[in-house]
Amino acid sequence: MRDILILGGTTEASALAAALAERGIGATLSYAGRVANPKRQPVPTRIGGFGGVAGLERYLREHAVTHLIDATHPFAATMSAHAIAAARSTGVPIVALTRPPWLPIAGDRWQPVADIAAAVAALAGPPQRVMLALGRMHVPAFAAQPRHHYLLRFVDEPATVPALPHHTLVIDRGPFGVTGDLDLLQRHAIERIVCKNAGGSGAQAKLIAARRLGLPVIMIDRPALPPRDEVPTVDAVLRWLDHDADRGV
Length: 249
Hints:
It is a single chain. By secondary structure, the protein is α/β, with parallel strands linked by helices. The protein is built from seven helices and twelve strands. It has helices at residues 11-23, 52-62, 77-90, 116-121, 178-187, 205-213, 234-246; strands at residues 3-7, 26-31, 45-47, 67-70, 94-97, 109-113, 129-133, 149-154, 167-171, 192-196, 216-220, 230-231. It has a six-stranded parallel beta sheet with strand order 3-2-1-4-5-12, with helices on both faces. α3 (77-90) links the parallel β4 and β5 (94-97). The radius of gyration is 19 Å and the shape is elongated.
């Protein structure tokens, strides 16, 4: 009998939850709580943090979790590091379901940067119309470059007005298409995009649109994490689970 904990919040996590439910495998999907109305799931869900590594260790033990699957966003570095540490200390097998990063192709005008601070610094220069495609939690950092007009696209209406003197806010939920993102970028006369290298197809439309329009993209690299097993698809996770079952884990 398996009781799996999925650390979620991504499209891949939802797809995995559906696949496990279809197989009749016991699982719980955990959300960090940043989205106000998460998608309904075919497995039990929980919302909120665990209280650091110690809290996650306690949860794994108290709920007799047999497998831990980290299907969080590739930039959820703290949660992923906590998951690795908690799995190691409790002996719970762990695998990360993570999207391969995007790679530039002909026509892309990417400027790779290490982190949010470097992305903010890269916006030094004259005023531009900039799309911040990186989630609301990082928006306040860009107040350090106040002369730009920023286009923000959030899943939910924010509780407070974004701390940017010049901005336009769009409320929308992905996945987004190339035609729609081309229209968005042209309608708002965007001159540059800032985004994280999240990978996957759901958020790639803006990059294809930027390529077609010849727009430069400040691309934030993924954070470094401790070593861990990673797989790119739901099917690969299922094979990993089956392999553990064959070994009697």
